[in-house]
Each structure stands twice: as C-alpha cells, then as structure tokens.
Amino acid sequence: MTTLQRASALALLLLLPGVPAFAATQPAHAAAKKPLPLPTPHLSKVKLHTEFVVEVNKLGQVVRVKSGKSCPNLTFNAQTYGNVLQTWIRHPDGTAEVGLYKVTYDYNPHGATVTRHVSLLRAGGNWGSMRGAANQMVDEAHQEDQQKAPSLPALNSILKAKPTPHPHG
Questions:
Q1: How far is CA 114 from CA 61, 63, 66, in A?
Q2: What backbone torsions phi and psi does residue 112 show, to the nearest 5 degrees?
Q3: pTM of the complete model
C-alpha cells in the first residue's frame, strides 16, 4: 500500500463517523416537510480481496501494518485497512501470542458479505510491549486536543448567561 493510499484510507475513516452526526443535527421540521433519501451504497458486483501482514503485541492488538495488498476498490481498501488497525488477534481462551500475522478480507457480491481470515506467519517479535495502533491513534488525538485547548478561552468566560431549560414538544 502506498503512502497516498494510506492517507486516503485514513481520511475516509475520519470522515465516515461524521455522517450520522451530521444527519442527526438536521432540524426535525425540515425532515418532516420533505424526507431526504439516504445515499445508496454502491456495492461491488465483483469479488474483492485485500490482505495485510501485521505485527501483534502481547495483548493481541495490531501494532502496525507491515505490508499489504490492495484491490482496485478504494473504499474496500480503506475499510479493511481501518479494520485491521483495530483488530485484536487472540486465542479462544483469551490469551495472545506476539507475532507476525496475515489478515485477509474477502468480499462476496452474492449476499454482500465480507469474511476475514487470520493466520500466524511467525511467532515472536520485538514489538510485544508496544502499544496497539488504535491506542496510538487515540493518544495522538488526545495530544492534539491538549495542544489546542490552551489557546481557547475557558467555556465559563464565553457563556455569561445561565442555561435556560428547553420547552418540550
């Protein structure tokens, strides 16, 4: 996967959570007047396959994607890349094994299903004590928030008036 593809995948993943929030902020009276049609997802009509080689820590968290093979469908690439970064790989008893794993995603257009398969390529590795990729992303987001927060005025200094209750109905 190229840097551009990774950046595109990350950008797409960051934008997707905002869609439901945007829809929820629309006034109720606007929806009652003229309902807006939901966007129809364009599902692939052909089978899709992506695969990733990932490093997994002692907790079973994916630490990083070492390599990957994409498919022609950029949306599927972004979705599977985002999913693999959040994956936990553990044994049925809840234990985890540090190692290098292969994770594949296969989309079947008949039934619109995606299957994920995990296989251990090699046990061990020097990343066993590293933080998982999902935790790293959360840490970076918190650091960005903390860096921005000091430049903003305190909320109490902005809101001089007391909040008023909203009428029901």
A1: 21, 23, 22
A2: 50, 55
A3: 0.65
